[in-house]
Structure to design on (98 residues):
């Protein structure tokens, strides 16, 4: 889910709601600004809890999956020995690989 769109939509809805309350447009004119603010806070709180829950599900799915390997399992992975960390730089590397 694209959470940035959810938060953007909530921001737009909140702006319209506050504008309707402050302009005294019926039935929103009957709503007190403090109640409108509390409603907006509740909407953002619900969205952030849903975002947290979605992120925790994604994290759990990633942990249950197989680990990522830098090389396929059928290839032999060669690691550098400490003796290969000499000062000879790239010139010595060609000699060692032969």
């Amino acid at each position: 889910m694209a959470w940035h769109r959810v938060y953007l939509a909530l921001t737009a809805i909140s702006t319209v709601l506050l504008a309707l309350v402050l302009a005294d447009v019926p039935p929103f004119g009957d709503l007190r600004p403090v109640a409108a603010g509390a409603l907006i806070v509740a909407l953002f709180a619900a969205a952030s809890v849903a975002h947290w829950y979605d992120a925790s599900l994604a994290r759990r799915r990633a942990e249950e999956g197989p680990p990522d390997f830098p090389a396929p399992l059928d290839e032999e992975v060669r690691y550098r020995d400490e003796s290969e960390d000499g000062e000879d730089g790239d010139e010595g590397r060609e000699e060692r690989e032969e």
